[in-house]
Amino acid sequence: MVIFNRYIAKRMVLLTFVEGIIIFMTMYLSIALRFHFNIKDIYSFDPFFIKLTFFAVVCLASFYYFELYEPGYYNFGRQTPLKLVHALIAGACLLFVAYYFFPILRIGRGVLGIEIIIMPLSIMLWRMFYTRWVMDGLSRERVIILGTASLAQKLGTEIALHKNLGLEVVGFLDDEECDKIRSEENVSKTDG
After folding, report:
1. At residue 79, what are phi and psi to the nearest 5 degrees?
2. Global pTM?
């Protein structure tokens, strides 16, 4: 997927989207737990949708800033919980500053305390599931490596060793085939 002339991996979009939904839903669950599932009290927690959305956006931004959406951290490894805690602390600091300037967005009444427990656990469970999903090959992108030299072979070996990248080498194209593709590409650029 290309946005503003920059490649964005589909995996990152999926991970961000699902984690946004998880954050949103765990906040909703935290509010429901705090108010003992009393619908009237839950929806009187105004502005309900804006508070949940703002909280989710701040958390996702802090996850992005702490590189939890980099390919090396897609999977659940030893560093992931530590980076997640750091991102949550930074997100909490951002939230506290935002709550000072915009008190209407403040999430209080014990909801944040419940959320601090539920949300990281949910994110870690999702990351473990996602890692298993990618490692089992359910979400692989097929790639063709241009070239057959030693560097291309080394790249193919590295991709095969690191299954957590979600890539599968389909094959290699030798230099003659690469030159043919490049010349066809140049012709199509001048024709269009």
Report:
1. -80, -20
2. 0.68
